[in-house]
Structure prediction request, 660 residues.
Amino acid sequence: MKCKPYGLLVFLLLAIGQVQGQQSVIDSLKKAIPAEKSDSIRINGYLMLSREFMNSSADSSFQYAQLASQHAAQTGFKSEQALAVKTMGNIRYVQGNYVEAIQYWQESLNLYEAIGDQTGVSTVLSNIGVVYYNQGDKIKALDFYLRSLKVAEDHKLKLREAIALNNLGTVYHDNPETHNKALDYFIKALPMLEELGDMDAYGTTATNLGEIYTARNDEKTAMLYFEKALKAFQDSISMSYTLNKMGNLYFQKKNLDEAIRYHLQAYNMTLKLDAKLEMAESLIGLADAYREQGFLKTAISTYLQAELFAKETNSFAQLEKLYNGLAITYQLSKDYPTALKYQNLYSSVKDSIYNSASDQKLSRLIFNFEIEKKENEIDLLTKDKELKELEITRQKFAKNASLIGLLLIVAIAVMLYRNYRMKAKTNEILDKKNEEIEKLLLNILPAEVANELKTQGVATPKYFEQVSVLFTDFKSFTKMADVLSPQELLEELNECFMAFDDIITKYHLEKIKTIGDSYMCAGGIPSPDPDHVKNIVAAAFEIIQYMESWNQERAKKNMAPWELRVGIHVGPVVAGVVGKTKYAYDIWGSTVNIASRMESNGEPGQVNVSENIYELIKNDYPCTYRGKITAKNIGEIDMYFVQPITHQNKLGLSLEAFPL
Prediction:
């Protein structure tokens, strides 16, 4: 099972489009190009003809791309020449001629570098990496993928960066020990591609995710991503990749008729362009299903047909699968000598791939080191920023505490001075001040904890079996901080947090703390509350509603909106007071970490919850399944978007799930 890198088949979408009127377009271009005086228009006309012929004749398509390249070279149009030469490489790739494909791409790479077209440089580097990946040379593939990613990051080419992340994920997928790393890259790339609107690349990455979950026997999640991919591809040639993976899923489930249907549909699509690698994959899937149905002669014939395409493309991975299939099929046919022949071929190819993989261990270690070093640098920057924000908060608290202490000293001095004149009046003033101090203490600690501190001098940490935890965070807060003065930033942030305080008080929740632009509260502590989960979800929607109204007012003043993410989880926590001075009530445990992950993996304006929350509210709120995330020391966790209860919901009408 192999994930698919992305970067080569986008141009095929242009070739397959609408068949109606194609011949008239070709005829019109053939007549118009010779009479055209503009060199640029003539070159682009040849490129258009090349794209039109991709539907019917790869050789004709290549000839017109070659004409475009020659004319561009003669007239000095370097950009058009680079595109034409890259197109020639694309066509040779589809035909399975990888040697010429790389030669043409290397030539186009030199042209793109000469004219400073960094998008072209990143694209061609990725294309070359895909060829080496298909041939099983992961070291070279990794080298070109990383070079493509570096160009994309250095020049802020978001689409190329997302595609590079997908391709790097495919390399990690080939090693079962790094499947979680592959998931991280695919899940990081998917929303980037959706935001950029490149649905073909989005479909490829979604299919790669579906394939990983197929390997994990998670049929529900695999089908979720396959359906996203089919919707993104919208009947393009790239659908063949997803259809083959869906065929593999049904084969794994022993639903052989469905497996054959999907593999045949994929094969018919790839046959149009003579895409040999994809044709080999479809045929191997068909042969496996025929063998399991007992049609051994048909299976053998199909395997042998796939072998021709696999050899043409020098695909060791496909050869390994089909030789293993032939060995099993001939053994079932009781043709043991031929079965032994293919078993030896299978072992030879497998050993070749294994030895290649052994040589890659050092490269993988270097790769992990470089990527993790980069992630650690980002973490250090983030932590440094948080520490600075905490230091500012600490200094403000110390200043306020000193001021309050000074005021208390003055008040006490005044009370002592007046004691000899009016004892009754002094007692009244003392009572009033004690009440103010009590309120101040209750603003810092929950009432039960404050009373325990006053009566016993200590507050014992307590374990709570079920506590709901809510996190909020403003998306792109760092960018907003860069354009606002510190005073403006704090005023606006304080306005939001004061509103949040009022909302959670209304729903009997306990504010825990704020860290920078993050707000944290909990339900069910320090006093048990059977309705804390419903209350915290209702509070989340009211917070989002407040932010929508607040942003509307900002829009009237031509001010940028503040986009808020919300995440909720429920589970056990330990709660108590930390420190000996400047008491702070806090909670600890994996529940807090998971709630934070729910927020960071959410979307602005949405309430993102864990499966634990979903199970408790699914009968009260409509929810949309979002997929999984991986949490350290916990494993995979399902996520859901919770939708507010509308008037139709209350009437009991059905709701359709919307795509993410």
Remarks:
- The CA atoms of residues 389 and 516 lie 6 Å apart.
